[in-house]
Every structure is written in C-alpha cells, then in structure tokens.
Amino acid sequence: MIKGFVDFIKQGNVVDLAVAVVLGTAFGAVINALVENVLMPLIGQLLAQDPDFDNLFAVTLPGFDGPPMRFGVLLTAVVNFLLIAAAIYFVVILPMNKIIAARKALLGTAEEEEAEEENITLLKEIRDQLKVQTEVVNPAAFAAAVEAERKLEEEKSRVEAEKEVEEKTVLSKAKNFLWSKD
Q1: Which segments cross the bilayer (predicted)?
Q2: In angstroms, what is the C-alpha Rg of the chain?
Q3: Taking the domains of the chain in order of start, what are their residue ranges?
Q4: Could you give phi then psi for residue 70, rounded to 5 degrees?
Q5: What is the pLDDT of residues 124-150, one digit of tens each?
C-alpha cells in the first residue's frame, strides 16, 4: 500500500502538476500586483476618480426593502477581467510568441514545417497518380473499387431511408397519442 502511494507521488505528472500550481499561484500574484498597483491607478487617474465602480449602478426596486442590485460590481469585475487578460497578453503571450518565432528562425524549424507541408502535398499527388494508374493498368481492379464504393453508397442510402421511415412512424405514433387517435 505504501509502495503504491510512493509510486503515485513519483509519477512525473504529479510533480509537474504541483510545480504548475505553485508557479501559477506565484504568477497570479504578479499579474494581480500589475493590475491593482499599475493599471487600476492609471485608469483612476484617467477617469479622475477611484476606478472602483461597485456603487456606480445601485438599483433598488420600488416596494422592496432588500439590498440594492449593484450592477457596478459586475462592471468592476468585467474591467478587472479585461485588465488581467490584457496584462497576460502584453506581458506574457506577446513576448513569448516573439521569442518562439525568433527561436524557430534561429533553429530553422519553420523550414521543417514547410517541408512537412510539401511532403503532404507530394503524397496527395502520388495518391492521385496511383489512382489514375490503377484505372489504366488494372481496369478490373478499378471497376471492383468503383462497384464497392457504389454498394457502400447504396447501403448508406438504404439505412438513411429506413431511419427516416422509422422517425416518421415514431412521429406519427406520437401525434396519434397526443391527439388521442390511438
């Protein structure tokens, strides 16, 4: 029992997950500090007021004594979300994409992707040529392949027709049941 637990803990994905959680928490603190201490004060200075919109749209319905509906809280959450998304994009994603592109250019991996696409195109051309050659060289094999494809299409059409009839039958039964004709 203990050996199984130790094996579980030693698995690479458990350790990777633990590292990801710790780094995610630390990175979340960095992003929150950026949003709360740089971006939100900047917005506050641009608006000449506190960027907290919590009490901006507080609505109380007439005849109700409960707490007001505070739409400003939603607005604050949306603004915070957009700021966090922008901070992540401009501080993390954009620089990382540039670093990855520079690395690919340096290592030549972009050429490998283009070569792979060329290989796929070449394989498609070979497939098409083989199809033409089979038709010319071995007409019997080509005719058999065409016949098999036709039978497959007929079977497919037959199954769809049976399914359509069954659906109509079920629908008719349901209508008769609803209108008490049954």
Answers
A1: 12-35, 71-94
A2: 33
A3: 1-110, 119-182
A4: -110, 90
A5: 888 888 777 766 667 777 778 788 889
